[in-house]
Write a structure and sequence with these properties.
heterodimer, A: 514 residues, alpha+beta, MutS, DNA mismatch repair protein, domain I, Dna Ligase, domain 1, 5-stranded mixed beta sheet, 13 helices, B: 186 residues, alpha/beta, Rossmann fold, 5 helices, 27% helix
């Protein structure tokens, strides 16, 4: 036994605009098209219709009937994105949905009873899914699409027609609910037919001979019979949300507020489809008539609004649009969501989303070359290292040598205060000077440093020194280097590393042991 | 005193002392401790003085340390610290402001302390003098006690190590460590 749900959003063009600007839902709203003075109303929400605003009225007539009417231009992108959002929301409940027009989706709910519950629960789930993407929908459930469509127009917000009860349930419904062509509706009205039950009771052969194919189609609708096959909708390969603006935005905070709303709608769609965004394409329509397009590749797939917004804003901060913005469109390249569970004894590290946001901010603060994880180069050249992208989740495979694993070698120890080290719990590290500070060094007869000028003070005597530690490299290249290093204790208390560059004969302070 | 006692999650610790007193070695030991436990650390290096080779020799897993090189800009270093302590997931955020620490008002210090408490990371500030005042839950001072050289005969040919005394200047909480002595192998 087939069960089909029809999800219907009344006054869809208005609902699509309200989705972008929720505050408009509380008052009368009309969607207009055409340039003044030929501007006409093409759609109106419930509040506007209560005040007599109907599609087809001119802008002046509509304003005369409802002075506090809010008007918005018809945006094809806005309606299309709302239509897609509704389809995707329904797709999150059932794998078979059919796009029956703007704001109208047929959902095959056969067999969902085992998963969700009775038809009423399925209908409530569909209504919740539509609400999650910002659309208030009515749901009708019946044995056929035609019956479900009629059920979605009448009765409660979730209207369930019992199995094999289509005729009884739909019989009293007025013929106007079928939205028949005007000529056919007038003919049926002349015949005195008012309800679906009366139309369904007519003989098909007689209708066919008098009204032809349209009459038979109307009879099928009244009987709740489907003649067309179910055309399942497949989601498009792109995910896009747009927001048309009636005003011009010329500041980044205001643009960020609009982007946040657009991203929130996109994130709700991701949530219903179990997807993450891998990259975001931002397209800003400018008041000058041009476009400003940016592609923001996310450091990691994500579906949360806040980090995506942060990355977009930071990118737009670095590459601002050249004119005020009058339209925003964000499309996402999506990847399936992947659940990863951390190990029970694993220490927490920053999540990729938090890390991506903070790394981008840090790069803006100190420059991209100043942030990363140090990687030692395979070279004996002093201070040979590079900065690699920081990824703590990928770290941890290598065996880390434990400092202080071995004691000081069994050599004679000299100490300023006669302290004999029992063990070595830590390693003395060098505090580097970048670039090395040039110093003047006087040497003794043996060539050892005796006096140092310009290190940490104007002049200091060398108390003790050890060296030289000779090293050289890359003699086969133009970057050849050769140096002697000395560890020296100075009379001013400093303990530093001096380097004597062999090719130039200059001395430099490499760093201080601290 | 152990290195682990300096790492207080959600609290600020200051390591102060003159140059060559062993304060940077103490900081690097903390970075190594965090890496060995599998956590992630961030080092904000105001003076661009961090030596990765020394740190690797001291047992630091460099892949787990985010190095932020500020090139002498103290303001950028403070802002970077503020960003990082608010990013959940870091076990340690170390701010090395070196020889010329910036002036931080008491209000700023308490704001930073609040951010650290909310973020859950341990914030370690290394400087010549104390900068956070009452914003720090623990403050220790390093002083060089001794210097050892080694060699086959009475002529030193190698720097053997440095002995540092660590004394507590300020402590909050019952589990505060006492004074101690640390030996650093060169």
């Amino acid at each position: 036994m087939n069960r089909v749900a029809c999800v219907r959003v009344p006054y869809f063009a208005a609902a699509a605009v309200e989705r972008g600007e929720p505050a408009l839902a509380e008052g009368p709203l009309a969607i207009v098209t055409g340039a003044p003075p030929a501007t006409r109303v093409v759609e109106a929400n419930g509040a506007a219709r209560e005040r007599g605003v109907e599609p087809g009225l001119t802008d002046a007539e509509a304003r005369a009937r409802c002075p506090d009417l809010v008007r918005r231009p018809l945006g094809d992108e806005v309606v299309a994105s709302a239509r897609h959002a509704l389809l995707e929301a329904c797709l999150g409940v059932s794998p078979r949905v059919e796009d029956a027009g703007a704001g109208l989706v047929h959902v095959d709910v056969t067999g969902l009873g085992r998963l969700i519950g009775p038809d009423a629960a399925v209908g409530a789930r569909l209504a919740r899914a539509a609400r999650a993407v910002g659309l208030e929908a009515r749901v009708g459930i019946a044995g056929s699409r035609a019956a479900a469509r009629v059920a979605a127009r009448v009765g409660a917000r979730v209207n369930v027609v019992p199995p094999d009860g289509e005729r009884a349930a739909l019989g009293p419904v007025a013929l106007a609910e079928l939205e028949l062509p005007d000529e056919l509706a007038q003919t049926l009205a002349r015949w005195g037919l008012l309800t679906l039950g009366e139309l369904a009771a007519l003989p098909r052969t007689g209708l066919a001979s008098r009204l032809g194919t349209p009459g038979l189609a109307a009879h099928d609708l009244a009987c709740g019979r489907d003649r067309e096959p179910f055309r399942a909708w497949v989601p498009p390969p792109f995910w896009e949300e747009a927001q048309g603006l009636e005003w011009e935005l010329d500041s980044l905070p205001a643009l960020a507020a609009v982007l946040e709303r657009v991203l929130a709608r996109l994130a709700a769609r991701f949530e219903s489809a179990r997807l993450w965004a891998d990259a975001l394409d931002v397209r800003l329509t400018l008041a000058s008539g041009g476009h400003h397009a940016r592609v923001v590749t996310l450091a990691a797939p994500m579906g949360e609004v806040r980090p995506m917004l942060t990355l977009l804003v930071l990118d737009l901060e670095a590459h601002p649009p050249r004119a005020p913005v009058v339209g925003v469109s964000v499309s996402a390249r999506v990847v399936p969501r992947r659940a990863v569970a951390a190990g029970l004894w694993e220490r927490s590290v920053p999540t990729v989303r938090d890390l991506a946001a903070v790394l981008t901010r840090l790069a803006g603060l100190v420059g991209p070359a100043g942030v990363g994880a140090a990687v030692l180069d395979d070279s004996h050249r002093p201070d040979a290292h590079t900065l690699a992208p920081f990824d703590p989740t990928a770290a941890g495979g290598a065996e880390i040598p434990r400092a202080g694993a071995g004691d000081v070698p069994s050599e004679v120890g000299f100490s300023e205060r006669g302290i004999a080290p029992a063990s070595a719990p830590g390693v003395l590290v060098l505090r580097r000077l970048r670039p090395p500070r040039p110093v003047e060094v006087e040497t003794d007869a043996a060539g050892r440093p005796a006096v140092v000028r310009g290190a940490l003070g104007p002049e200091a005597r060398v108390v003790t020194c050890a060296g030289p530690w000779r090293s050289s490299g890359e003699w086969w290249d133009t970057r050849a280097w050769a140096r002697d290093e000395w560890d020296v204790a100075l009379s001013d208390g400093a303990l530093c590393r001096l380097a004597h560059d062999a090719p130039t004969g200059r001395w430099a302070l490499d760093g201080v042991y601290d | 005193m152990t290195v682990g006692e300096l790492l207080r999650q959600g609290a600020v610790t200051e390591i102060v002392g003159p140059l060559c007193s062993g304060r940077t070695s103490l900081l690097v030991a903390c970075l190594g401790e965090v890496g060995r436990a599998g956590g992630a650390a961030a080092l904000i290096d105001a003076d661009d003085a961090f030596d990765p080779a020394s740190a690797a020799r001291a047992g630091v897993d460099l892949d787990r340390v985010l190095w932020v090189r500020c090139g002498g800009r103290r303001g950028a270093a403070l802002r970077a610290a503020d960003l990082l302590v608010r990013c959940p997931g870091f076990a340690l955020v170390a701010l090395d402001v070196g020889e010329s620490p910036p002036r931080i008002s008491l209000a700023q210090a308490f704001r930073l302390r609040l951010a650290v408490r909310r973020g859950g990371a341990a914030l370690l500030v290394v400087a010549r003098r104390r900068v956070l005042g009452a914003g720090a839950a623990l403050a220790v001072e390093t002083r060089r006690r001794g210097l050892a050289w080694a060699g086959p005969r009475l002529v030193p040919t190698r720097l053997a190590g440095v002995e540092t005394s660590v004394s507590v200047l300020r402590r909050q909480g019952a589990a505060a460590p006492g004074d101690g002595v640390v030996w650093w192998r060169a």
